[in-house]
Amino acid sequence: MSSIYKIKNVPFLEDFSKLAKSEPRMAAYNFRTANCQYSNFLADSENCYYCFNSSGLQDCGYCFFCNDCTQSYDLNYCTNAKNCYECSDCNDTKDCNFLVNCVDCQRCDLSENLTDCEDCLACVGLKSKKFHIFNIDHKNEEAYLAERKNILDKYTANEILEKLLPLKKTIPRLNMVLNNSRMSIGDYLANATLAESCYNSSNLDLAAYTMDSTNGLLCCDINNCNGIGNCYDCLECSNLEFGKHCFFVTDSKFMTLCAHCFSCENCIGCINLKDKKFHILNKPYSEKEYLKMAPKIIKEIYANGAIQLTDYYSIK
Fold first, then answer.
1. How far apart are CA 54 and CA 63, in angstroms?
2. Which residues contact 91 (CB under 8 A, 6 or more apart)?
């Protein structure tokens, strides 16, 4: 097929592939961070160590796919955790340790599937409870603290988890973990509305086929993104509006087939740009020229069927 847009009679996607190979690659994909060592794909964070694919962290370490956490360590897929350790798939937790699939909990340890609980140890499947140990109510704080001290002095964390196994077998398990979500299908979703086939994500509205993302509106085929709207087939993007086939594009809008662009608007096939408008293959055009050429280029991009950015831009 002949190319609608050509540079030296070369089809657009071939030019984009050459541009991608000629541009330098970033060593680490971090932005708006301070004093964050040995981290990657980290945003809006400070004083962090060994954190990845996260945003809004402060004084945290060894966190993976976490958002808005403070003074916490060894977390996976957690949101709004404060002073927590070794938690996974938890939301809105404070002063907790070794939790899995817990929401709105405080001072809970070594437990699973708790909702709105406080001061619980080694519990499973409780909701709005206090002073429970192995799902047994200890009535008051004094009795709870005495028994808690006795158990923690006598057993290690691994031994307590082993003792918890028989109790876990008696508690029904959720087929989907959906917290504060409605009309949604997926797993490990929080605060989602009309989300279909979405996983490990939060704060989604009208989303589909989205993973490991937060704060998304009208998005589809999204992975590891934060704060996006009207986007399709994007990876590791933040604060992006009207983006298609983008990789690590931040604070931008109306971007198509772009990578490593910051604070840009109306760009197609661009890499490593900052504060630019109306660019095609990293070359500037007037607004009038761009608006005339853009529809033809986009038509050519899709002429041979659906594409993905990784088809033309290796992110090894």
1. 7
2. 78, 79, 80, 102, 103, 104, 179, 190, 202
